[in-house]
């Protein structure tokens, strides 16, 4: 990936860390600013699943998913907001899910984290709109990825039957929407579903 970006003359600084740890999130943002000068766009894309039926779900199953998916977004957003406010510009894009809009069997923890991101998005958007900082969320549907590759064919077929467009989405389509939201300067507090009509 580094080589691919280098072909476009873009400076890339790989930074790894744990978004669920507040101090580590702050360190990552500080390093990015030190290396690049600013953070103009934050995409909160870290996410995990720990799927099981509610009666079988442990407290650890629930808390681990929320800590990465929701608390991680809080940690990264909190860390990047002060520099964005100082610059009086920025875009934050939170990766939610149609599961946060609709719910799903065996995903109470994941659905709670993604629904929480929607409320988080709208609240933060209201707080920082007058500082020219836009906060939006994307709610992907069934997108082919490493995360969905572990689902059984039975689950995939059941999902496909519910999608009006009768096909799964591609990561590139979500990436295109992310780029659009990063550059759209009169759009904030919105949740954009990209799901082939699944959630309509």
TrEMBL record:
Signal peptide location? none
Example of a GO biological process term: monocarboxylic acid metabolic process
Annotated keywords: Oxidoreductase
Point out the coiled-coil segments of this chain. Answer: none
Supply the Pfam families for this chain. Answer: adh_short_C2 (PF13561)
The EC code for this enzyme is: 1.1.1.100
Q: Which domain of life is it from?
A: Bacteria
* UniProt name for this protein: 3-oxoacyl-(Acyl-carrier protein) reductase
Organism of provenance: Streptococcus mitis
